[in-house]
UniProtKB/TrEMBL annotation:
Organism (species): Streptomyces zinciresistens K42
Residue ranges constituting the STAS domain according to the UniProt record: 11-114
Upper classification of the organism: Bacteria, Bacillati, Actinomycetota, Actinomycetes, Kitasatosporales
Family that this chain belongs to: Belongs to the anti-sigma-factor antagonist family.
InterPro entries (alphabetical): Anti-sigma_ant (IPR003658), STAS_dom (IPR002645), STAS_dom_sf (IPR036513)
Record's protein name: Anti-sigma factor antagonist
């Protein structure tokens, strides 16, 4: 997991698996960003190959935390790419929770001043 900033946005690039073992790491990174006073966060999940219920849980908890700070959480979940789309995108859609998130095809689109999320 790597982090950076793009303007007013903090960006976390997540790769590999988002599961019982790795989701606490993401949760801690999100909490660290918020503790630094940054409440606008982009999670780039385009390189996540697997996501289980623990991963979904940390995404929902991150959304709740960011919203409680009057911030915004944006996810990068491309429709096309490795294996015809993001695994996380398919998991969130199958569970019916994708609509809870603002989803963008890439970081550039997510941090743009006139950003418009992809439809659920």
């Amino acid at each position: 997991m790597t982090g950076g900033e793009r303007g007013d946005w903090s960006v976390l690039q997540v790769s590999g698996e988002l599961d019982l073992v790795t989701s606490p790491v993401l949760r801690q990174h999100v909490h660290d960003v918020v503790a630094e006073g940054r409440h606008d966060l982009v999670l780039d999940l385009s390189e996540v190959l697997f996501c289980d219920s623990s991963g979904v849980g940390v995404l929902i908890a991150s959304r709740r935390l960011i919203r409680s700070c009057q911030g915004s959480l944006r996810l990068i979940l491309p429709d096309q790419g490795a294996a015809e789309g993001s695994h996380v995108n398919r998991v969130l859609g199958a569970l019916g929770v994708r609509r809870l998130f603002e989803v963008y095809p890439d970081v550039t689109a997510a941090v743009a001043d006139d950003a418009r999320p992809l439809s659920a």
